[in-house]
Amino acid sequence: MTMTTPAFKNLTTLAQQRLGIQQAQTITAETIASDAIARLHGRRGDVQRLVDLWQRPEADLVGTAALLTGAPERIRGLLGGLTVARSRLGTPHTFLPYTPELITDRNVSQIFRDMGATVVDALWGGVDSELAAGIREVTGGWSFHPLARVFAALCVARPIPSPRGATESRSYLRALFDETTASPLASWARGTVTEDWTAWVAASSGMSIDEQLQTFSVLIGLHLHVALQWRLAPSGARPLSFCVTPDAAAGPLVTASCNVYQWWQGRTLAVLQAMSLEQVDAVADENPDLSAALDANDAAVLSRWRLVRVESARQKSADLFHQRYQDELTRRTDAAQTHQMQLSRNDAREIVRDALLHPFAPSAEKFRDYLRQTGRAAAYVGPDRGYSRKRYQIDARLLGLLARLHTSRDEMKIRTSEEERYSIEGFLDDIFDRYGILITRGREAAEAALATESMKPLLRFLPNEALTEANRHDVEQLLEGLRLLRRYSDDSAVLVPMR
Which end of the chain is more exposed for a tag (fewer CB within 10 A), N or C? Predict the structure, then answer.
């Protein structure tokens, strides 16, 4: 009988499935909405003539003379403003999704990283859902934007082939919703996500096309970011982001916001470590000899673990595992002998775990990048400049969207105990319940959630209530500047719809 060589599964693939991330690759915030629009409407475009026009705006390209007038630099400037992704040489890849024809049909997987599949399949329930139909009706009107009407005429529509089966189109995030229907993540998706997009469709009638596109992109980023927080959170914990305003002065509030964000980034590696240990235990359970080796306290016997294969597209991953395992085993056994100690089973498991984690550690960086880029898309993580330390911050784009959604909801769907559900207090309660956005600790609902044992790792980063009340004041001032908050007295303020 042929014996099957034991093998570790590919940690990157397992982590993608567990975290609901379609590709463990670098993404760009600006392309997420574009891929979602293309998949929602079932077509993309051949944008090569627009690329040629950007490269040679002075040329009289066929079909452009009748459509475009103006100086070459003006034409190039317009195209530059429409560009959302570029090559390393600066050449445009794809453009703002006013119409699907402006979304390139070339190198789709490399440019968009299948982000649109996650949005359409998981957030909207598939292209045929009632929710998707409402969103399709709103976004279909974007083609009347003046720039879309001019430049889309230079592109050729390319239909997207339908998937061969329902399971092929199911994203990892949608699979998590379906497989764990009783989980907090699935409940959040059925409640918050569906309610938000329903409110967005209702609110969109009062927005310009550019405002619709901006809020559309921000809401996608927010949902994807919070969904990842649900998956990264330790058992029993929930998403939490302490947000300051972009203009907040350096001090304890900004430090707290930075520390909370860094903690979530660190969770990506912690999840990979836990999954690596799960793989060690799974292989040990299926192979008695390898399981016994973990108790041997003998380097020669423990070396049997070097024979375990690593499932990966790269042979280098297996080589890295084998080399790291031998190095770690030698180091730990030498240290144990020096101190006249024995390696316990847990020590041996950790040696194998760390060696297995080594070739897949770069994936943790990709997951951190996903956290950052979805936060950027939501106008939620910044600042964008240079190498500045990133933090959670709530700027006018996100705050304006949240206020619009709040005033567009049925008041019975607003999650607060306040009688006046459109009050600033009701708003702060609602955004904490839905997204874990914490502005102040002066709200009972937030303090009750923070008091649980599972939230203690994050609680240590948060400033006291008095300091967070100053943060609330800053957010209220920002809302008043946007004309979204009407104040009747020092103790009474109500959100109003944006006109």
Answer: N
**What mean pLDDT is reported for the chain?**
89
Q: Is the pLDDT of residue 134 over 60?
A: yes
Burial of 410 from C-beta contacts in 10 A (0-12 / 13-18 / 19+): exposed
**Which two structure tokens, joined as six digits, stand for 44?**
């993309």
Residue 64: which residues within 8 A CB-CB, separation 6 or more?
Answer: 49, 53, 154
CA–CA gap between residue 420 and residue 423 (Å, rounded):
6
Task: List CB contacts of 436: < 8 A, sequence separation 6 or more.
Answer: 226, 229, 238, 239, 240, 241
Task: Say what the pLDDT of residue 166 is.
Answer: 41
C-alpha 121/C-alpha 113 separation (Å) is 14
- Tell me what the mean pLDDT of segment 138-158 comes to: 92
Tokens of 86: 């570029």
Cis peptide before 383 (omega within 30 of 0): yes
CB 241 within 8 A of CB 398: no
Structure-token match 């874990």, residue found: 436
Q: How far apart are CA 132 and CA 123, in angstroms?
A: 9
Identity at 334, one-letter amino acid code: D
